[in-house]
Amino acid sequence: MEAPPVSVLPITGGTINMMEYLLQGSVLDQALESLLHRLRGLCDNMEPETFADHELVYLLKGQQGNPFLLRARRSLSHPTVPWHLRYLGQPEVGDKSRHALVRNCVDVATSHSLPDFLNEMGFRMDHEFVAKGHIFRRGVLKVVVSKLSRILVPGNTENTEPLSLSYLVELSVLAPAGQDTMSEDMRSFAEQLKPLVHLEKIDPKRHM
Amino acid sequence: MQQREEKLLEASVESLISRVAHLKNALHSFIYKLENEYERLTWPSVLDNFALLSGQLNTINKLLRNEKTPSFRQQVIIPLLLSPDRDEELAKLTEQRVPVFSHEIVPDHLRTKPDPEVEEQEKQLSAEAARIGPEVAQKQIQTLNKLCSNLLEKLNNPRDDRDAESAAIRQNKPSFNTADTNALVAAVGFGKGLSKCRPPGPVAPGHPGQGPMMSGGPTLQQVTIGGGSGQQQGMGPGAPQQQGQAGKMPSNIKTNIKAASSMHPYNR
């Protein structure tokens, strides 16, 4: 079930299929500082980067009942930066021994008229949330530590309340389809964060 | 024959002098470091210095034990001339430490027996050892050996002991909550607990989104209902419509067979 190697993919039209490898975990608020220290040591040396994003999830209900989901994200700390639209496919059911969740991923940057455009296309906003936190990089690995907050009044990002007493920790890599070596690197990095946080492959469907 | 021995003696004395000079330099720099760079000194670098000194002592020992080295014990040093005058040559040789070859320095530098105090202590120790008798001594030796081997074992196998202790300590302070992880993943994955008709009140960790998921805005979980006539066909979703529920649909279908006017795709 592996996608063909990159050289065989069509050059004309279409883009290279990018897959996102993902491991998720969480850390309690009181342990956040120690996790940040450890990440600062393990990851590439750069200024600690914080972010504040507002994500809206749009649904298009199709006739067949499987809604099509798109995620639109904008930065609250840099309001003029373009919006980011992302499609995430179903997690690839492959090798059970693969250590990370793998899914198809398509990312584009869009203008600020994205919500209106999606509404006109027939998408409806299903839910939105605010994510604030830190982002670290180590080579191609990206670690995002974020606090998710619920928006109490739709559209008002000032009035939020945290979802839980923990921060969500996500380790992800974007790689072209067919490269399976990533999950080994991710697993060894995740080992280094134990026992502060257990990063593992969590199937979202299990928590429906 | 004697010439050869003399030459051998000279050669070994030369090499001994050079080794001792190395040792002296190492000691000198170590003392300097201890005295002047006191704040910046780390334990590993102190250990390095000690290791260097021990290595140099080892080489000196090896040199002395070497079969080519004549036994120095058989050599006798007799001072031929003692004078209270300053001797420039000697001062130069010893880097100004021994300027005068006189009666005061001879007992210290040409000593062959230990100091009188040391001799006293040694005599006391040997008297003590003779007093306790051979069996008690043997038992003491055995206990010492056992203690040493225990300690060595503990030091050489750190993993088992340390892991048990540290696991016990860390269990008291968990740094993550699995229920929280699941809640957050569900929230990011498909908006559990975040949809517009959210439950009232703050969410306690572990009980996300269990409020009424009623009408108002259909969430992901309810999209299967009212799928329309399209549901009757197989489950071949088009390429973009892979998102959504897992597995086979049929069990969740409420087949509202609406004739011509199936759900308008742009229904709001």
UniProtKB/TrEMBL annotation, chain A:
Belongs to the Mediator complex subunit 18 family. It is found in: Nucleus. GO terms for molecular function: transcription coregulator activity. Component of the Mediator complex. One of its GO terms (cellular component) is core mediator complex. Keywords: Activator, Nucleus, Transcription, Transcription regulation. PANTHER family: MEDIATOR OF RNA POLYMERASE II TRANSCRIPTION SUBUNIT 18, MEDIATOR OF RNA POLYMERASE II TRANSCRIPTION, SUBUNIT 18. Gene3D superfamilies: Hypothetical Protein Pfu-838710-001 (2.40.320.10). This is Mediator of RNA polymerase II transcription subunit 18. It holds the Pfam family Med18. Component of the Mediator complex, a coactivator involved in the regulated transcription of nearly all RNA polymerase II-dependent genes. Mediator functions as a bridge to convey information from gene-specific regulatory proteins to the basal RNA polymerase II transcription machinery. Mediator is recruited to promoters by direct interactions with regulatory proteins and serves as a scaffold for the assembly of a functional preinitiation complex with RNA polymerase II and the general transcription factors. The gene is LOC110517739. GO terms for biological process: regulation of transcription by RNA polymerase II; termination of RNA polymerase II transcription. InterPro entries: Mediator_Med18.
Automatic annotation (TrEMBL), chain B:
Keywords: Activator, Nucleus, Transcription, Transcription regulation. Residues 225-237 have a biased composition (Gly residues). Pfam families: Med8. Residues 238-247 have a biased composition (Low complexity). Residues 225-268 are annotated as: Disordered. GO terms for biological process: regulation of transcription by RNA polymerase II. GO terms for cellular component: core mediator complex; mediator complex. The keyword Transcription applies. It is found in: Nucleus. It comes from the Eukaryota. Its main location: nucleus. GO terms for molecular function: RNA polymerase II cis-regulatory region sequence-specific DNA binding; transcription coregulator activity. Component of the Mediator complex. Component of the Mediator complex, a coactivator involved in the regulated transcription of nearly all RNA polymerase II-dependent genes. Mediator functions as a bridge to convey information from gene-specific regulatory proteins to the basal RNA polymerase II transcription machinery. Mediator is recruited to promoters by direct interactions with regulatory proteins and serves as a scaffold for the assembly of a functional preinitiation complex with RNA polymerase II and the general transcription factors. Belongs to the Mediator complex subunit 8 family. This is Mediator of RNA polymerase II transcription subunit 8. It comes from Oncorhynchus kisutch.
